[in-house]
């Protein structure tokens, strides 16, 4: 029988109102006491606050605020008439709360007596009467749709009969059938008239609807009666006012705002009026429910709005109209006018339309069409989906074998375990002995794979396909991951050796505890193969060398996201990843799901852009929309999609869901204990062991004690007491040795406790004796489910509220935890089935039922973090414009779900019809996010061109995981000068802490910490969220322990995030160049890391020094510098502990300090080169400093302007410290005139407080270079024709007719004079022709003399030789000789040569023997090309050549002309003076003087490491080519031979992702293949094929 929300609402409403409460509410109690007490208000408030603290001690610090208040009211009621806590009161308290501190109860009793004494006698009487109707914590109206009773109406029973029936204690079994059976019409039994509820009944609803829908039918295609019924369903089913408002707007439209407002305001009265309406109105309601309709052949619509296509809507409209006309004709005998439609035919058409397969994203009722069948999807529920009930739009809720039992105490839904059905799937088990040697090593303790693993084996172990495995917990998904790992390893075996440096495998686990378990599992199994498995999480950091040595990394989503976000340093790591395994993919639905979406989208884009293979394996519990997830993971559903339902669980699981009905928190606690005990006893009676999971450490003891007491009181201890045996006797002796008092007390009765706060040896004892069967009932926390594989037949989750510090509130236990805990139910070796029980509040029952029976499709959470993720991609360089961003969004799960379920993401079906790929919607999302980022200065977004460019702030936010909202706070509040208190105030306002709430029960403790512990001012005090965050942060640094459970959790969350945010602020200050703030923020980072204030002694960083010693040092104000000057004996006597003197001295010498010495050299009047010598001044100890390096921040600051001119991160390695060798840093800084007095160089340790060194750079004796004369102006001259040579032979050498402007201006000096010339001009301005002018003058004026041309590189020499051999030797008849290291002609050829082309080194060697070599003396002209290389390493050779030439000239008394060719120079005058050039021969043109104008774009890239930095430049290079020269040839210069190939391959990869991959190839395919045959290097074939040439000198 199908369940309808409308029918359930009445019984759920009755049950919630029927429970009688036993005490007045705490709120009411406070009001009475405050009003009637005859003492000052302040004293009353203090007493009530004190009472809640005592109550918290009794209830448990982990309890929620509502529970504590409710318990306070209960305890007040219990103790108000007694003077001491007697046996009766103790028993009652123990029954409700379990064991409690006696002192807390006594203090509470005394305080209550004191409060009672303040009140008049009659007040006490009024509190004591028994007519207590007001329930603590009870809502005025229970929300409908939450307290659903999972039962259907009996055949023939009407809704009214069900309303009148009351809950019974008898077990009421209901079976769910998939066929819809409509209730037959029955006369409605008369009912006694109930009082009118302000006329808000179904008649009122009909009148209102008629007013807004005046026609016979509404625009929705349904009658007014149907619309009233649907509105009532919506009113009773919505979870919140916000959801209700959205549902009503969707149903009625925005133009009926007043009607919606009226419905929301009067929702409660409408529901109550409809449930208790007078007899007259009953008929109307019945009619609205369809009482007067023809027999119903399809289910009514529930609260879900059914989406119809236009054709379907018109069809339904015509069908209803025809039915009404038929009805009127029958009743009134009127003749029907108009077109005749056959309703039966129309209905048949409708059913056929629904069943027909539709396009995947048609926007119609596609969800109800039968799904395509895939070969490896084994889903028993899929057949049920094809039934008419499902197609009609009613959601199937539970399997047909469920049992429902409802009592006044609780409602229970039991889903029996499904027997493993006979199926042929996986019967052919894969035996391990049949596999290869590698697999046998990894599966050495396994004989054969199980059914699921055998089915997946071929795809996992023999292909590279992406896979999605959906299977129940405990089905062996880990072994499937192992198969894919082994397959990946096999691809990197060469000659029997695994090439470990060729691949990386990343396993993403959702929790750190699970990551640690996976490391143990995989690490142990892969060790024989020599594969290293390491954990990389927030707790476990790996150095770069460790990562290189590791083949498999087990990490969390957030950590891997951070690693892949950083474009510098980790590029090599991400490029080596060949297999990405994502465990628990169904977490996409969770808040953290957006991180998984980012990872997958980034990985798939990397695959497509780099054309490299990265295999993705998704592991998941059973989830409803597995096809969507498969599409998101790019899984081929015919090959890689595997879905196994509950039948494949190794041990079938029965599930019980219990919803406690009590609304009072105290009653709820008591009822939960009762139900929990009943469930434990039920299992123990049958001889099974039980695990009871609770959510706080203290609660383990409390629950175990309560369960034991209940067993004793009921005389049922015999079921729990262990069997006496020798093994038990030994176990009891071992337990008695434990120091855990509660464990010793509980063990003999068959109970045990287990939580992370226990000692490791005690936990081992409990685990061992539970496995041995000595403990029947183990009460534990969820850490046992995650960290230890210890199954039991039955598991019980007692309560589902846990405190989430991220949200600052108690939240529902997540589906991941529930499934992990349920995965512990059933022992494969012993049990045929297992059982899992959830005990929760009644309103949460439907929530957990839908989660555990996979009712709700998992949706994307990406939209909430779209802005931050877009910033991360822009900072990474993978998104540079809107088109790329739109494409990037198409890789996300958000895109998949937006197309499947557009309404959930605010997209109308109209939009989907017109834009099926949602291009415009994605563009709108990106533009909106881009505007936000631009406003926050995180990116630069040009809407006109659509380009994104990352800023320093955006990169920092991405690397440190800072949210966009927090960056806005930073922009608003961060200033150049701030105190530490100001910084804490800014950090406290970060968006990361917005969810933290301030609770009344915490105020007293927070105020106490504020006044006693906080060392800095707290703006806002403890009443505000940011004030609370500030207090918690200061308390954390001061190492102050918290009493309240919620404060402990909040403090850990605050400390974890505050350190990260302040690190980001430090980087921001460094980039902005604020030295004071940078130093202050770096100290605060270390303050939080070390939990040590800056004013405390730095020696507190050494744990071996006691507090007593440290206090003495602080009392005597002993600084580290003073202690350095003292010897150990002096220190020992000073602290009155001679032996400690040496220890203190050793610690002082271990604080990392540096000795800095700076020397400066001016390069120009505005640029200064600094050489910084760094000498370590401390002793290295591996226990203190680690085994690798100490990190420092070094910056140069100008104290007058408060600005940093240079900063860098410096690593001092262990071997450098041990050797004592000085390190040298060289960098340049700007300098301004007038000269400042001094700059400071500071070196501050990145992790040690008190480690700071500095040295001053003084400019007092600095002599700056002289001011350089201005550049030579290019004169506006008429271009000189080549006929100016006045020699036809010379003129014939040139193809052009006129010289360019520079050549025109220098022609006279070069060709008609012998003056030395220095020509500085930009590249490409014709300097070679200028050299030829001087050479031709020698040929003309001094025919017997020689000219020497010196080029800096052999390649340039060869280039000149190829040109001049033709033009000068062949055409002019002059002899040209090459003189290099590669070519050495005989001396006769050199002696006969007219022009010698050589390199500096070769001419230096030849000219050294000038006295014996006549051809050296015969040189009349020396042309030095690229003379600016004087400032380079080869400069001394050029200096020697010029000096020797001048020396030879003075001896032979034959002048030698020197012509220097250079680029534009800054100090051309100095060089000209050295060359002996007067004003006439100096031509130094501006760099901008070019024959062809040049546009320059300079793009700087952060990062110290060469390879990652070069890799990040490739994408911008590709974009620049596309932007600036899409059609014409492009030259890309890189700095090494290896990089030519790497850059070319990256550019090919980017081209491959384009629509036209061969857009750069401008020749026919046949020509290309001809060229390729001539190329010997196979690596270059792909380059030529795509229109590129990768080459090096």
TrEMBL record:
Start and end residues of each Helicase ATP-binding domain: 458-641, 1308-1483
Segments forming domain Helicase C-terminal: 676-890
| Gene3D superfamilies in UniProt | 5' to 3' exonuclease, C-terminal subdomain, C2 domain, P-loop containing nucleotide triphosphate hydrolases, Sec63 N-terminal domain-like domain, Winged helix-like DNA-binding domain superfamily/Winged helix DNA-binding domain
Subcellular location per UniProt equals: Cytoplasm, Cytosol; Nucleus speckle
Q: Name one GO biological process term.
A: mRNA processing
Key words, A-Z: ATP-binding, Cytoplasm, Helicase, Hydrolase, Nucleotide-binding, Nucleus, Repeat
Region annotation Disordered: where it falls in the sequence:
278-301
| Molecular-function annotations in GO | ATP binding; helicase activity; hydrolase activity; nucleic acid binding
Establish whether keyword Hydrolase is in the entry.
Answer: yes
Q: Write down what this protein is called.
A: U5 small nuclear ribonucleoprotein 200 kDa helicase
Q: Which organism is it from?
A: Magallana gigas (Pacific oyster)
